[in-house]
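[09:14] KT: can someone run the structure on this one? pasting the chain below
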Amino acid sequence: MEAKFFRFLKIVGVGFRARTEAEGRQLFLKLGYSHEVEFAVPPAVRVFCFKPNIICYTGIDKQRVHQFAGVVRSCKPPEVYKGNGILYIDEVVKKKQGKKSK
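[09:31] RB: done, structure tokens below
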């Protein structure tokens, strides 16, 4: 299978990590919930974890690669106050200022 399209996601947060099993067919995410989030990867997409916080999606179908990356990102989108969550590698999260104490 020749991979043409790539999508990189970065996981930011203390204790947040990803791992793959079954040769890139299953993706497990620890995102601070009480359980591990599990994804079955679609047939046209392969998943690699370079580090525990960097995920690479690759495949020949751009639509499916980007769709699956979006689905994974939606389970913990970037948070505007701390910057935690799953974000695209080239994405910049504009942080908001918190409540001001008097």
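[09:33] KT: thanks! The mean pLDDT is 86.
[09:34] RB: yep, looked fine to me
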